[in-house]
Write a structure and sequence with these properties.
The longest helix is centred in the N-terminal third of the chain and has 84 residues, at about 125-205. The protein starts with a helix and ends with a strand. It has helices at about 1-60, 65-85, 100-115, 125-205, 220-255, 275-280, 285-290, 295, 300-315, 360-400, 405-430, 440-455, 475-495, 540-550; strands at about 260-265, 270-275, 320-325, 330-340, 350-355, 440, 460-470, 470-475, 505-510, 515-520, 530, 535, 555-560, 565-570. The chain folds into 4 domains: about 1-170, Up-down Bundle (Four Helix Bundle (Hemerythrin (Met), subunit A)); about 260-355, Beta-Lactamase (2-Layer Sandwich); about 365-435; about 460-574, Heat Shock Protein 90. The protein is built from 14 helices and 14 strands. The protein has a 5-stranded antiparallel sheet, with helices on both faces. With about 575 residues, the protein is α+β, with helices and mostly antiparallel strands.
Length: about 575
């Protein structure tokens, strides 16, 4: 606040000095004007009185009416000049003659006129005439002397006033120059010099050098400003150090990230590129920064990536794969992400590039695909060989059944052949399927049921229908499911219908409320059922119950005479 007080005191002093000088100058001008008026009045009066003396002598010599009229006119001008001189009277100046001295002139002149016609031989009248002339001339001369003395005194006062005005004309500019010099010195010392030090400190800070601005600063507002700047510079230095450390840490992180990381602004010029990014394109940091993306990618690759660049600058994230040669000429595979950088105003300022080198992954995937193809080929060959071996076993069982005389033994061998055929069919479906991990359930069930119907030799009197959901099942599930359906469908075809009796058998595998429901239903003559069990418990029915438990369910029967039989299994999943 000291600088403000100093400037206020300086301004107040300048105002007071200015008002004082204006007052003195005004007073001097007014006095000069008054002196000038008084001088003019005194001069006019002296001249008029002098002229009056001349007219008096002229009248005495000639006594003409013309001289009388001129004398009276000049007297009137004398009275007017006297009144003006009285109004401009000044202290220190000889006062004007009394009013009586002015008024006696007309009286003396009248006396002189009355004696002008007196006889010249009368000594008394002549003497009286001479006395009147002397009195008139003496009074007029006294008035003239008074006017001339006053005029000289006023001229002296005018000279003094002019001297004072000249002194003011010298002193006032001198004081103003002194005041200006004081103001300039104050500004130079208290304002400009501290501001120069503050500017030097700011310039040094811009060059990265810390210079204290408050050293030697005056104890005023600029000194306080310098102290605030020093505190700000210290805080800024701390934040700059923290920012540099953070930037260095970020640089170490992004340089060690196994990916290409870069940033491109709206003009598609580089602002950031990590070590992998520069290494990929064979660029140094100085050569990378500020370079257009077309110069880095090259014309061909830039043309390929241009739609993704424009999409990112439009505010949409871009994801794509690209195979490009590196700086060493080796073809590399990459996955690129262009992420828009949206500013606080909603404007896209640029985009971040994240490119992952997936060459090893691609090569590993290609090698894995080749190995998988080889393994699938080998596994299909195994399935094919297993299917062939099972078919050989089925053929052997069929041949064996033909040479057995016992009918029950032949039936047992035939059933065993059907079970082997069901397992062989799974391997056949796996061999033909596009994938080795699952079997298409509808196709498998349709083929299995067709084989069972053909083996039963019903001559078309019994129709077998399927209602299977479009699902794929694993091989370890397809084999027990196929054996279960073989047992259930075989029982229906063998026992539910008499010779020549028409009927229907329906195989259903459909989703249910608690999982999957597997059911085989016929409209034959039915079976004897005790609760959920069928009597007598043959080997096939025992095998079916065991297969149902293997699938995670329990085999249940529903049957009545003439209404057919339904065997069902509820499992959680296939």
């Amino acid at each position: 606040m000291q600088l403000r007080r100093q400037f206020r005191a300086l301004i107040a002093f300048a105002v007071v000095l200015g008002l004082t000088m204006l007052t003195v100058l005004g007073w001097s001008l007014l006095r000069t004007r008054t002196l000038l008026a008084s001088h003019e009045a005194s001069t006019s009066m002296a001249l008029e009185v002098t002229g009056l003396l001349v007219l008096t002598q002229d009248y005495l010599l000639h006594a003409e009416p013309r001289a009388l009229a001129q004398w009276q006119a000049r007297m009137r001008r004398i009275e007017k000049a006297y009144a003006a001189a009285r109004e401009a009277d000044l202290p220190g100046v000889t006062r004007l003659a009394a009013v009586e001295q002015v008024q006696v002139l007309p009286e003396l002149f009248e006396q002189l006129r009355s004696l002008a016609d007196a006889p010249s031989d009368s000594p008394l009248l002549a003497r009286r005439r001479e006395l009147a002339i002397d009195r008139l001339l003496g009074a007029a001369q006294s008035l003239a002397d008074n006017a001339y003395q006053r005029e000289q005194e006023i001229e002296a006062l005018q000279a003094d006033s002019e001297h004072r005005l000249m002194a003011l004309a010298v002193v006032v500019p001198a004081l103003l120059l002194v005041l200006l010099a004081v103001a300039v010195a104050l500004v130079m010392r208290r304002v400009l010099a501290p501001l120069a030090r503050l500017r030097a400190a700011i310039d040094a800070a811009a060059r990265g050098t810390r210079v204290a601005a408050s050293d030697g600063a005056p104890r005023n507002e600029i000194g306080e400003l310098a102290e605030h700047y020093d505190r700000l510079a210290d805080a800024l230095a701390e934040r700059t150090a923290a920012l540099d450390a953070s930037e260095a840490l970020l640089r170490r992180v992004i340089d060690n990230v196994p990916a290409l990381i870069g940033y491109w602004d709206r003009e598609q010029r580089n602002r950031l590129a990590n070590a992998d990014y520069r290494r990929w394109f064979g660029r140094s940091p100085e050569d990378m920064r500020g370079r257009h993306i077309a110069d880095v990618l090259g014309p061909e690759l830039y043309a390929q990536n241009k739609p993704y660049i424009e999409g990112a600058l439009a505010g949409e994230r871009q994801e794509f794969d690209r195979s490009i040669p590196g700086a060493d000429g080796v073809l590399r595979h990459s996955h690129a992400s262009y992420v828009p950088h949206v500013g606080a105003d909603g404007r896209v300022d640029g985009f971040v590039v994240l490119v992952t080198d997936v060459s090893e992954h691609v090569r590993s995937r290609q090698a894995l695909a080749r190995a998988l193809d080889e393994k699938e080929t080998l596994l299909k060959e195994v399935y094919h060989r297993v299917k062939n071996n099972l078919q050989v076993v089925q053929s052997l069982l069929s041949l064996q059944s033909r040479s057995v005389a016992d009918a029950s033994a032949r039936d047992a061998l035939a059933e065993m052949a059907q079970r082997v055929r069901a397992m062989a069919l799974v391997h056949e479906q796996l061999y033909q399927a596009p994938t080795l991990s699952s079997v298409p359930l509808p196709k498998y069930v349709q083929a299995l049921v067709g084989q069972l119907a053909a083996a039963a030799r019903r001559d078309g009197t019994v129709q077998v229908n399927t209602n299977v959901a479009e699902v794929d099942v694993r091989p370890d599930t397809a084999i027990p499911l196929g054996l279960l359906l073989t047992e259930l469908v075989g029982n229906s075809l063998k026992h539910a219908f008499a010779a020549g009796m028409p009927g229907h058998v329906t195989v259903s595998v459909q989703p249910a409320a608690d999982g999957v429901r597997i059911a085989v239903a016929d409209d034959g003559r039915g079976l004897p059922i005790d609760g959920t069990a069928v009597h007598p418990p043959t080997l096939g029915r025992q095998l079916a119950a065991s297969l149902a438990r293997q699938l995670g369910g329990e085999l249940r029967y529903q049957s009545s005479p003439g209404a057919g039989t339904t065997a069902s299994v509820q499992v959680a999943q296939l």
